[in-house]
Write a structure and sequence with these properties.
CATH architecture of the largest domain: 3-Layer(aba) Sandwich
Number of strands: 17
CATH superfamily of the largest domain: Vaccinia Virus protein VP39
Distance between the termini: 60 Å
Bound molecules: S-adenosylmethionine
CATH class of the largest domain: Alpha Beta
Radius of gyration: 27 Å
Structural class: alpha/beta
């Protein structure tokens, strides 16, 4: 694992907020549990990775002097600024100057929208601080950050180029970011292949080699029996033991035929490994197993490890208000250390450290950027909205994606930003105002009421409610609070929503006719299974390329289930591979439904009623059973309606049970 970890992207280093006096830096640590154990309580303590943070902090931290004790951003001396900027972009070329910012590549030369000064002057600062409710798109910037994916070199020979690598200038920034991305992608691929081979090699017990003790070459490790494992469960704080067994079991499972003990099966090692993963990383047994099975053994450990480390803090330039190069300049002037995220986005910036709270700069308050996870850009990039379209964002609060859609449409056309949770639409509305989106209509319906409430959209984004297994590094409660029932209910809701989303797309759209489905979860039942269901239930849709340049292919086979082969066009993103939150993106093209050869009006009416939605008369589905409101679904729809009415204070009489 050590070698593998070395060859892949560096683990994200924590975000550093530079102290106001610019002389010392405060480093916040994100933690890898396994790397440091707090001897006082025997539990792993969080530790800063020496590589990266310190280097970054030293390389790029602001050295300017503040001239007063004000609020930290107004009075940084110009000389301080220059040296700070030079430190950030120094390529040892004395000619380097702030003018080089002009070379900061940005395709978006959109005219700026009017700053909504009136709104800003009326809204209290606190109302614009949306971080608390915006768990997905508004990461807590003070605590979390990381260095960008950076392939580490293992040889001395490489150390010279390492120092070259550190000299980032505005001129070479984009190219360097691109090179790093490409290298990281290559490394990730090589690693995935290595893991695949290790996994394939494992399990062939014919080729078993054992040592004299008949224990294989397991380094003297003796696998506990099932009884011993049960007994371990009650023992609190055996973190060291769990950590050691995880390493041993993973190593043995990676080459089971050679290293496994003769009298123990592969499944016994897996059972032990799962028990230890659950206790060491703090997951319930169910979720630990569910996530474990997504990957080959060694990669699964990397995934669990990555969930212990914060993802990079990233911001999205709001092109309705500014350009990326101008925003970068403004933030650099305030002592923010940043870089473009990667070549796949021309609006994203990654923040390494800052002398000011990144969620409270004047630029933030003026709507020049959104604090937004990089993964959250992906579905909008896939959606590709264009000016003057009619777009539905079906589950949109707090609006990270809505406001991006609005910007790509250059404040033209209309974006209906819907969310069933009224309370959450407040932060959505605040973001819409702050970012100056004038083409957004906020509404609050259950997504399953579309297209009854309105339809005919050129594009629909369904960023579905999900279990959040992709964002465990942000919300560790997911580790313990998700049960099989949650996954069953969520998957069901997602299936209902996706059919409604499909039916809301105008298949005759001149410019679009697309649906993007996304989740911040990595489980198959919330992703591929939902997409496969939609393909089966709506023969008038097909999967198309997402247009995203990276990401792993969606599963077409998973633990005995086979999905439509086109599901490989969907994309999975992982924290340990892509250094971003776990995410899933699928893009559909919606076609016209095939006309029924000869149909009576009566039959059409029946079908419209059966589907419970306003299917245009005369349009016909090829498959009789295309609606989701089967008997099974009705139960859930009914329950949801009752909940909805109850939430409005309306008493609902329970339905009389049909007599059997
Ligand atoms: C993943 S979050 C959306 C994040 C949002 N797209 C963004 O980028 O800021 C899922 C949202 O779905 C909403 N939601 C849950 N059930 C819903 C339903 N039945 N219809 C519409 N929205 C729903 C939740 O309130 C939540 O805000």
């Amino acid at each position: 694992m050590g070698r593998r970890a070395k060859n892949k992207q560096g683990p994200p280093a924590p975000y550093v907020e530079v102290k106001q006096d610019f002389e010392t830096t405060t480093r916040r640590s994100g933690g890898k549990r396994k790397q440091n154990v707090d001897s006082a309580n025997g539990r792993p303590a969080k530790k800063v990775k020496p590589d990266g943070v310190v280097k970054n902090a030293g390389k790029k931290s602001g050295k300017g002097k503040k001239t007063d004790d004000g609020d930290g951003w107004e009075d940084v001396e110009d000389s301080g600024l220059k040296s700070q900027t030079r430190a950030l972009f120094d390529n040892s070329d004395d000619e380097e100057s702030l003018e080089d910012l002009a070379e900061f590549d940005d395709d978006d030369d959109d005219e700026l929208g009017e700053a909504d000064d009136e709104f800003l002057s009326k809204v209290p600062k606190s109302a614009l601080d949306l971080e608390s409710s915006d768990s997905e798109d508004e990461p807590e910037p003070k605590k979390k950050n990381a260095k960008p994916p950076k392939p580490s070199s293992s040889s001395d020979e490489d150390s010279a180029s390492d120092s070259d690598e550190e000299r980032v200038t505005l001129a070479n920034m984009e190219a360097k970011a691109r090179a790093l991305d490409e290298q990281a992608a290559l490394d990730a691929e090589a690693e995935a292949e290595e893991l695949r081979q290790a996994a394939e090699g494992a399990g062939d017990e014919d080729d078993f080699e054992m040592d004299e003790a008949g224990e294989g070459d397991g380094d003297g490790f003796v696998l506990p029996t099932a009884e011993e494992r049960e007994a371990q469960k009650g023992v609190a704080g055996d973190i060291h033991g769990a950590q050691r067994r995880i390493q041993q079991c993973a190593r043995i499972l990676g080459n089971f035929k050679k290293l496994g003990a003769r009298d123990r099966s592969r499944s016994e090692y897996i059972a032990q490994l799962l028990a230890d993963i659950a206790s060491y990383y703090g997951y319930n047994d169910y979720l630990a197993e569910k996530l474990f099975h997504l990957f080959p053994v060694l990669e699964a450990i990397e995934f669990f490890e990555a969930n212990e480390v914060p993802r990079p803090v990233t911001i999205r330039t709001n092109t309705l208000r500014t350009r990326r190069k101008d925003l970068a300049q403004a933030l650099i002037n305030r002592g923010v250390n940043l870089e473009p995220i990667g070549k796949w986005t021309n609006v994203g910036l990654q923040v390494f450290e800052s002398s000011v709270p990144i969620g409270a700069t004047p630029e933030y308050l003026a709507g020049h950027y959104m604090l937004q996870a990089a993964s959250s850009f992906l579905p909008v990039v896939a959606l590709q909205p264009v000016p003057n379209e009619r777009v539905l964002d079906m589950a949109s609060a707090p609006g990270g994606k809505t406001t991006y859609i609005s910007a790509l449409m250059q404040n033209t056309g209309v974006v209906f930003a819907n969310d069933s949770n009224k309370a959450r639409t407040k932060s959505l509305t605040a973001n819409v105002h702050r970012l100056g989106c004038k083409n957004v209509v906020v509404c609050s319906y259950d997504g399953r009421e579309f297209p009854k409430v309105m339809g005919g959209f050129d594009r629909v984004l369904l960023d579905a409610p999900c279990s959040g297994t992709g964002v465990i590094s942000k919300d560790a409660s997911v580790k313990v609070n998700k049960t099989p029932r949650d996954f069953m209910l969520l998957s069901h809701l997602q299936k209902q929503l996706i059919l409604c989303a499909i039916d809301s797309v105008n298949p005759d759209s001149k410019t679009g006719g697309y649906l993007v489905y996304s989740t911040c979860s990595v489980t198959v039942e919330e992703n591929e299974a939902v997409v496969d269901y939609a393909l089966r239930k709506r023969p008038n849709v097909k999967l198309v390329e997402t247009g995203l340049e990276f990401g792993r292919e969606g599963f077409t086979k998973y633990r005995g289930k086979t999905f439509n082969s086109k599901v490989s066009l969907t994309r999975r993103f992982y924290p340990h591979v892509h250094n971003m939150d776990g995410f899933y993106v699928a893009k559909f093209k919606v076609e016209r439904v095939a006309k029924k050869p000869a149909s009576s009006d009566d039959e059409d009416d029946k079908k419209t009623k059966k589907n419970g939605k306003s299917t245009p008369k005369g349009d016909e589905y090829e498959d009789e059973d295309v609606g989701f409101n089967s008997e099974e679904d009705e139960k859930y729809i009914e329950a949801s309606k009752i909940r909805h009415l109850k939430s409005k204070g309306i008493r609902v009489k329970p339905k009389a049970k049909p007599s059997s």
